[in-house]
């Protein structure tokens, strides 16, 4: 794209410095390029006109033609309003009312003049009216005009300064007049021909002001395809370059691993675990840096795969790091692996925020000298003082909880050769999201639970069933089991007074079960207090754990077999699934009970029905993506990873797959994009800054 699109927005007709400042702050619109890619989020159908007698309160915005027959200002002071009567060709009347801008409207509204009126009809005392309708004087030449009117995102602050959707629409009209001649094609002729794509100039014109429904659909497809194509091209190109350029340590020896398999492992790996270990081993012996994502549902056995990978590194004289987002999770990994490491004579350390200074000094020394081959920890591992003799493997658990800069700090701990990287997540990621978030990684999936694991039985119960649920809890504890009860809030707040809060719940549970001991854990507690309460529960000194979602990740109590989630409608689907995964870790049958009131939204019902119907994390993730969108699902909206302008990963999976296949095909044939037919693509990429995440953006 030419420098024209870098022109500051204040220079556009109808904007100016004050409006420009608001657009920058509120919508991140700084340039002509930003504005032209501020797409409408919906359209109002201005193609149909209604007669006044056809109006109905259930209708959304409608359009009526008629003549103004009289107007008057009613009321005093703040209660002043302007009322006008519109009469259509059948003689039926519609009252038009304005409560704001009364003086200005009275001046501009012409009596005995024909208008097109657009607004939401409401009925009052048997008569229809419209409050603050849009008005357009009906000129002869406009009588047959039919169009879809764009509606743009705006904000309360912009509205307060009279920059509403209609004003942005006017700005867009001014922009397109000067901008369309400057638009350059950014896809190759081959892509345009293969996918029957509308040219870019027409796509911009018809996404903002569609001439017909068909042209709108073609414009939308073209812009979505381009956006997803460039995101995939960037990821795949990054992958190609990394595989070509980045050397990795070669790990061939497996003596300790063989000893572990034969003499120390007390269980068999599942077929899925074996497949994943084979994929990882292939990476570690190839001489190129491994960059692999390991996906596996809660309890699928990712940690043991991580340990096997660490053993291969240790066998070859390299050190490895396993970094977790919380101390609880780091502790769990450490405790789970320490026994194995001890039996093999391997020095495994743990470094977290609460590691004492004296112990830290010893750990730092052992890592520098190479005496410590493996370490588990939290963000504390990223500190500059933590240095290694030869860091060869970095494993990051729940990696979306760490920023890009944090992770790269870990990779830089070996200045000589970049370590192999394995990132793990127990959050099942829908395929479309994985292709976009982690499209530059190789992906392994553990899609099988270890033998002997029973599927968790999930039920939905209303508050009126509470006594029966409490009796069930009592029966389970009498069988020797333990119970989690999770609440969405710590304290009552006015806005959420109908939802059970933790403190109130804790007191209720103590009253309901005076014969049992109850622990409580929440995010506002100090780390040592939280740990103390958790350890009491782990040792079965308390039978019931009342908690917030702090127990979502990383608590492993095999004896806990019941998970009760209060106000379950307050939780997202993947969060409910994560919470459910806290039980079902032992040999006993486990249960998850979702408690709600009777008032449930449509989305809440879908979430609860999904939880009851399936334990399949990937199916749950797909439904969650459709309900909530990708930004909420992975917290990527804030991190800028998913900087999507028009495409929607929940709805556009088929376009994404086509776009990825097209990007892969072009890179296979022309990795450097040097061939003449790819000139448009190369020119477009060269116009962007190196840090641009979404390559379909205008520079």
TrEMBL record:
Matches recorded under Pfam families: DEAD (PF00270), Helicase_C (PF00271), RecG_dom3_C (PF19833), RecG_wedge (PF17191)
Catalytic activity, per the record? Couples ATP hydrolysis with the unwinding of duplex DNA by translocating in the 3'-5' direction; ATP + H2O = ADP + phosphate + H(+)
List each copy of the Helicase ATP-binding domain by range: 283-446
Listed SMART domains: DEXDc, HELICc
| InterPro entries from the UniProt entry | ATP-dep_DNA_helicase_RecG, DEAD/DEAH_box_helicase_dom, Helicase_ATP-bd, Helicase_C-like, NA-bd_OB-fold, P-loop_NTPase, RecG/Mfd, RecG_dom3_C
The record, for Gene3D superfamilies, names: Nucleic acid-binding proteins (2.40.50.140), P-loop containing nucleotide triphosphate hydrolases (3.40.50.300)
Q: What class of enzyme is it?
A: isomerase
User: Which UniProt keywords are given for this protein, alphabetically ordered?
Assistant: ATP-binding, DNA damage, DNA recombination, DNA repair, DNA-binding, Helicase, Hydrolase, Isomerase, Nucleotide-binding
On whether DNA-binding is a keyword of this UniProt record, the answer is yes
Q: EC number(s) for this protein?
A: 5.6.2.4
GO terms (molecular function) for this protein are:
DNA helicase activity; hydrolase activity
Where the record annotates domain Helicase C-terminal, the positions are 471-631
Please explain the role this protein plays, according to its UniProt record: Plays a critical role in recombination and DNA repair. Helps process Holliday junction intermediates to mature products by catalyzing branch migration. Has replication fork regression activity, unwinds stalled or blocked replication forks to make a HJ that can be resolved. Has a DNA unwinding activity characteristic of a DNA helicase with 3'-5' polarity.
For this chain, the family text in UniProt reads:
Belongs to the helicase family. RecG subfamily.
What is the designated name of this protein? ATP-dependent DNA helicase RecG
- Organism of origin is Pontibacter rugosus
Query: What are the leading ranks of the lineage?
Result: Bacteria, Pseudomonadati, Bacteroidota, Cytophagia, Cytophagales
Recorded name of the encoding gene = recG
């Amino acid at each position: 794209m030419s420098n024209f699109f870098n022109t500051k927005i204040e220079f556009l007709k109808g904007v100016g410095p004050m409006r420009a400042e608001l657009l920058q702050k509120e919508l991140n619109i700084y340039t002509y390029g930003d504005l032209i890619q501020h797409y409408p989020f919906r359209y109002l159908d201005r193609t149909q006109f209604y007669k006044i007698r056809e109006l109905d309160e259930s209708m959304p915005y409608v359009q009526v033609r008629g003549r103004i027959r009289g107007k008057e200002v009613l009321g005093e002071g703040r209660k002043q309003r302007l009322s006008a009567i519109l009469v259509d060709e059948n003689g039926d009347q519609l009252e038009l009312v304005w409560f704001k801008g009364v003086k200005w409207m009275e001046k501009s509204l012409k009596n005995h003049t024909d208008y097109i009126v657009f607004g939401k009809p409401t009925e009052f005392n048997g008569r229809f009216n419209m409050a603050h309708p849009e008005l357009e004087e009906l000129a002869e030449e406009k009588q047959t005009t039919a169009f879809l009117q764009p509606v743009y995102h705006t904000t309360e602050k912009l509205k307060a300064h009279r920059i509403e959707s209609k004003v942005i629409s006017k700005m867009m009209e001014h922009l397109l007049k000067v901008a369309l001649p400057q638009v350059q094609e950014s896809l190759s002729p081959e892509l345009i021909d293969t996918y029957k794509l509308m040219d870019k100039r027409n796509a911009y014109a018809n996404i903002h002001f569609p001439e017909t429904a068909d042209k709108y659909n073609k414009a939308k497809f073209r812009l979505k395809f381009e956006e997803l194509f460039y995101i995939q091209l960037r990821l795949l190109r990054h992958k190609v370059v990394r595989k070509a350029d980045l050397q990795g340590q070669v790990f061939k020896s497996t003596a300790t691993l063989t000893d572990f398999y034969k003499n120390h492992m007390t269980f068999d790996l599942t077929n899925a675990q074996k497949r994943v270990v084979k994929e990882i081993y292939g990476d570690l012996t190839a001489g190129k840096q491994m960059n692999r994502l390991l996906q596996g549902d809660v309890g699928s056995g990712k940690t043991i795969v991580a340990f096997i990978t660490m053993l291969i590194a240790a066998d070859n004289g390299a050190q490895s790091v396993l970094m977790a987002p919380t101390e609880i999770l780091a502790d769990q990994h450490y405790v789970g692996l320490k026994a194995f490491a001890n039996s093999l004579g391997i020095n495994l350390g743990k470094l977290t925020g609460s590691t004492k200074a004296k112990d830290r000094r010893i750990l730092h020394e052992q890592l520098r000298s190479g005496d410590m081959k493996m370490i588990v920890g939290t963000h504390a591992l990223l500190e500059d003082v933590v240095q290694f003799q030869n860091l060869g493997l970095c494993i990051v658990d729940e990696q979306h909880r760490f920023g890009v800069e944090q992770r790269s700090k870990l990779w830089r701990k070996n200045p000589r050769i970049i370590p192999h990287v394995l990132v793990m997540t127990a959050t099942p990621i829908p395929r479309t999201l994985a292709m976009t978030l982690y499209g530059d990684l190789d992906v392994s999936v553990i899609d099988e639970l270890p033998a002997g694991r029973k599927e968790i039985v999930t039920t939905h119960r209303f508050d009126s069933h509470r006594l029966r649920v409490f009796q069930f809890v009592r029966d389970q504890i009498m069988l020797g089991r333990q119970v989690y009860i999770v609440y969405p809030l710590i304290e009552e707040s006015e806005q959420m007074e109908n939802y059970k809060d933790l403190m109130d719940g804790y007191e209720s549970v103590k009253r309901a079960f005076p014969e049992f001991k109850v622990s409580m854990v929440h995010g506002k507690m100090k780390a040592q207090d939280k740990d103390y309460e958790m350890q009491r529960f782990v040792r079965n000194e308390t039978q019931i754990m009342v908690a917030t979602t702090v127990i979502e990740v990383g608590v492993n109590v095999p004896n806990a077999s019941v998970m009760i989630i209060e106000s379950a409608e307050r939780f997202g689907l993947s969060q409910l699934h994560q919470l459910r995964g806290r039980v079902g870790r032992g040999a006993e049958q486990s249960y998850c009970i979702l408690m709600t009131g009777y008032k449930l939204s449509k989305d809440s019902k879908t979430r609860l029905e999904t939880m009851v119907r399936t334990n399949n994390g990937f199916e749950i993730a797909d439904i969650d993506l459709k309900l909530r969108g990708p930004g909420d699902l992975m917290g990527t909206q804030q991190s800028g990873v998913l900087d999507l302008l028009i495409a929607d990963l929940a709805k556009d999976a088929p376009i994404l797959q086509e776009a990825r296949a097209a990007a892969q095909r072009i890179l296979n044939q022309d990795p450097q994009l040097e061939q003449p037919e790819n000139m448009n693509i190369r020119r477009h990429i060269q116009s962007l800054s190196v840090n641009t995440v979404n390559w379909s953006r205008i520079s």
